[in-house]
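Subject: for your reference before the review

Hello V.,

The reviewers asked for a structural picture of the protein, and I figured it would be easier to keep everything in one thread rather than splitting it across files. Below is the amino acid sequence we used in the manuscript, unchanged from the supplementary table.
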Amino acid sequence: MVAAAAIIAVICAILFAFAVIGTVKAVRAVKRGVDRTVAEARRTVEDTRLKAKQYTQPGAAGEVAQLRLSLRTSMRATQEALRTGVVEDASLSESLALFERLSTHGRELDEDLRRLEDEPDKARVAACLPSLRERTQNITQSADSLRWAAQDRARQFADDDLATLSEQIRMESGALRHWDTEPAEPAEKAAGGAAPGSGSATGSGTERAAIDGRNAWRQAGYSWQKTRRPESTT
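And here is what came back from the structure prediction:
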């Protein structure tokens, strides 16, 4: 009885531990989902604010908003393209590593642009814009280059796979229609097999009869074809 009670206690402890582990994993998954939703909501709100500021505030303030918006849009699109593509193409892992290094510069630039949005001195904003514009252009061009290269690579793989598949289908179609590629049986051989021992005096008539007989045998059973009239019929 003591041993049985100990075994039951151990089983209960194991089940309790599994339940605790499952609960912790579920809580963490829910927390990650909530954090992801909150981050997406904040990003959407920020992008909407920048779009509105871009069109409603002319001058340096509107250009700063436009630079931030173009930077965020390009970096986000490249990140999604690389993270999605690396699942199917492991060679994109190096490109993803380069993008992570580029993201460091992108975040620094975004912070500089955000601080410039709150700068009350308009002259300082106008003075800082040329360098910030150049940095934004360099980072977005690099991000776009990585994204376009990954997209071109995926498109090329799809084209190659389609070409290979089309060739395989063409070969299979030819194999299914094997009778179209078989050489026709020589008429002389067919005539010799149909009338062995026939002399040369009746060669032409016998050969024609043999060929006609073979065709009639092949065409028998097709009710839509007319019956061939005998050669002697007038």
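For the response letter, the relevant points are probably these. The helical segments are 2-56, 60-88, 93-117, 122-176, 187-194, 203-219. The mean pLDDT is 77.

Happy to draft the paragraph if you're swamped.

O.
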